[in-house]
């Protein structure tokens, strides 16, 4: 009896899907500011060290687990060792939470692509964004729950697109959309970069971005930031790459593919730094302020700084469509990769077909995400959930799982052998050292540091009410672990994919 789990047609399809997952908002709106604030040009050193000593080694680990044990996160972890199944459910739950709010950013970006044409934000983008999200006053706003119609419509559109792609399956949906969207994204972004480079002030922006501050290398926080960026940017250790690798044919070059994915993601990241800082350099000059004053990241960069740039630059509408269109493409291919972690788990658990697994998972997710995030609660929820899902989700599960694999199970030699049977790039002692020592060490330290900073900053985070942070931050993050353990205790039905040969 064979399980009809779906498969990638080949290595190229897999590589595009994996790059589609890796290249996301982290590249466009996170990397440029992280690099700038952590040594500028000098950041390249810790960044490359982090890529080679932790990012790519953990990518290989994900690939080895998914490919050797051929399953969604819970199925693969369970086959690895019966008692490690909870790690898989923990990853599934983190993916579930992230997907809920990631869709909101896509919905905003979709609307802003259209808003770029008539620059609907007028000459005060910050006020417009507040009005548009109905979260006027930002973090200090009282928490309310009213529908924002413009967001509601695009949330529905985003989720419908996700459902269609997921229903089409691993090859015809996930891989096919990445094969189209990723090259399109690169073309659009290159045009955006070239256009931005010719804006007055662009050179000053680049100078600020690349100017090395070698002294920063002595600061441990800079190194932690480099590892944090790499972990997030490569989508490692939260089930995505593991799930994708389970759809690969038995004979595939795992390590060679991993290197392609790792370097493609980082190259795009540098390109994003160039594009964003050219634009910020222009903005600083247009406003007659220092670059330092205009550098932001995340929601502020995309939905407040860029609209300002678009308003001031010649042919701003073009810049707007290219920038927000890029966000949509990069974000969409990441969103489908997170949703797939959940769909694959349910499909394996109940032995479902592709269509029913897609509908059972993504329709409820779409409803919850749309109901929660199309409201005035959207922005505050996104802020808090993102912080905790990253710090106590991705970072924690990565730390715990590497420690378990390396020390409690002592599974690294088996995984190393698997990688060497299925890869052109040989791995050995150094790889095991990276996975067993460097990764857990850096992850553990960053977990401790962020806990200290959250606890010492009091019960409030960014000015949100403490009950809100408690419920959607701490309780959510801890609850995921508890629910994961409970889920791992539920027996697998006889019809599940766990008992089918692949
Ligand atoms: N790797 C993605 C990025 O750089 C991050 C991400 C992917 C987050 C998938 C969540 C889910 O933006
Ligand atoms: Na990335």
Outline: globular
Q: End-to-end span in angstroms?
A: 8 Å
Poorly predicted regions are none
Q: Strand content of the residues, in percent?
A: under 5%
Bound molecules: phenylalanine, sodium ion
Q: Radius of gyration from the CA trace?
A: 22 Å
**Biggest sheet statistics:** none
Give the count of helical stretches.
19
Helix content: over 70%
Query: What is the H/E order?
Result: HHHHHHHHHHHHHHHHHHH
The total strand number stands at: 0
- Which structural class best describes the helix and strand composition? mainly alpha
Mean pLDDT: 95
Q: Please state the oligomeric state of the protein chains shown.
A: single chain
Can you tell me about this structure?
Helices cover 75% and strands 0% of the residues. The protein is mainly α and 502 residues long. α3 packs parallel to α10 and α3 crosses α18. The model has no long low-confidence stretch (mean pLDDT 95). The chain binds phenylalanine and sodium ion.
Furnish the topology, listing elements before pairings.
Blueprint: H1 11-22, H2 25-37, H3 44-69, H4 73-80, H5 85-118, H6 125-133, H7 149-168, H8 170-197, H9 202-210, H10 220-233, H11 240-245, H12 254-287, H13 298-312, H14 316-350, H15 354-373, H16 378-408, H17 412-421, H18 429-456, H19 466-489
Helix pairs in contact: 1-8, 1-12, 1-14, 2-10, 2-12, 3-4, 3-10, 3-12, 3-17, 3-18, 4-5, 5-7, 5-13, 5-14, 5-15, 5-16, 5-19, 7-8, 7-14, 7-15, 8-12, 8-14, 9-12, 12-13, 13-14, 14-15, 16-18, 16-19
Bound molecules: phenylalanine and sodium ion.
Phenylalanine binds next to helix 1, helix 2, helix 10 and helix 14.
């Amino acid at each position: 009896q064979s399980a009809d789990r779906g498969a990638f047609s080949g290595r190229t399809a897999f590589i595009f899907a994996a790059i589609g997952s890796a290249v996301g908002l982290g590249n466009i709106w996170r990397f440029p500011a992280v690099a700038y604030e952590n040594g500028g040009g000098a950041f390249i050193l810790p960044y490359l060290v982090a890529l080679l000593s932790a990012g790519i080694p953990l990518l290989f680990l994900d690939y080895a687990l998914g490919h050797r044990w051929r399953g969604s996160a819970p199925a693969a972890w369970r086959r690895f060792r019966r008692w490690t199944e909870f790690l898989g459910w923990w990853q599934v739950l983190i993916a579930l939470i992230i997907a809920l709010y990631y869709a909101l950013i896509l919905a905003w970006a979709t609307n802003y692509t259209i808003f770029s044409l008539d620059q609907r934000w007028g000459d005060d983008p910050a006020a417009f964004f507040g009005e548009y999200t109905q979260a006027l006053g930002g973090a200090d706003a009282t928490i309310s729950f009213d529908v924002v119609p413009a967001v509601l419509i695009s949330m529905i559109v985003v989720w419908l697109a996700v459902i269609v792609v997921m229903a089409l399956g691993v090859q015809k949906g996930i891989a096919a959309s990445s094969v189209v969207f990723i090259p399109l994204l690169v073309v659009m972004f290159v045009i955006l970069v070239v256009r931005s480079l010719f804006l007055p002030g662009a050179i000053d922006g680049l100078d600020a971005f690349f100017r090395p501050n070698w002294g920063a290398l002595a600061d441990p926080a800079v190194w932690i930031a480099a590892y944090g960026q790499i972990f997030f940017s490569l989508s490692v250790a939260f089930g995505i790459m593991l799930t994708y690798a389970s759809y690969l044919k038995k004979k595939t070059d795992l390590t060679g593919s991993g290197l392609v994915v790792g370097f493609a993601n980082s190259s795009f990241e540098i390109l994003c730094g160039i594009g964003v800082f050219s634009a910020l350099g222009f903005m600083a000059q247009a406003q007659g302020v220092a670059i330092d004053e205009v550098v932001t990241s995340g929601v502020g960069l995309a939905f407040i700084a860029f609209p300002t740039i678009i308003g001031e630059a010649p042919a701003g509408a073009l810049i707007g469509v290219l920038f927000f269109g890029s966000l949509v493409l990069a974000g969409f291919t990441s969103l489908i990769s997170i949703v797939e972690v959940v769909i694959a788990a349910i499909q394996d658990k109940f032995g479902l077909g592709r269509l029913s697994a897609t509908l059972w998972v993504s329709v409820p997710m779409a409803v919850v995400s749309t109901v929660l995030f199309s409201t005035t609660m959207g922005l505050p929820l996104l802020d808090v959930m993102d912080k905790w899902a990253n710090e106590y989700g991705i970072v924690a599960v990565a730390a715990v799982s590497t420690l378990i694999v390396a020390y409690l199970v002592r599974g690294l030699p088996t995984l190393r052998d698997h990688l060497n049977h299925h890869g052109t790039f040989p791995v050995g002692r150094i790889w095991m050292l990276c996975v067993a020592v460097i990764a857990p060490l850096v992850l553990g330290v960053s977990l401790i540091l962020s806990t200290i900073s959250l606890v010492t900053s009091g019960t409030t985070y960014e000015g949100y009410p403490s009950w809100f942070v408690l419920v959607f931050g701490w309780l959510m993050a801890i609850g995921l672990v508890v629910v994961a353990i409970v889920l791992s205790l539920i027996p697998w039905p006889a019809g599940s994919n766990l008992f089918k040969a692949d």
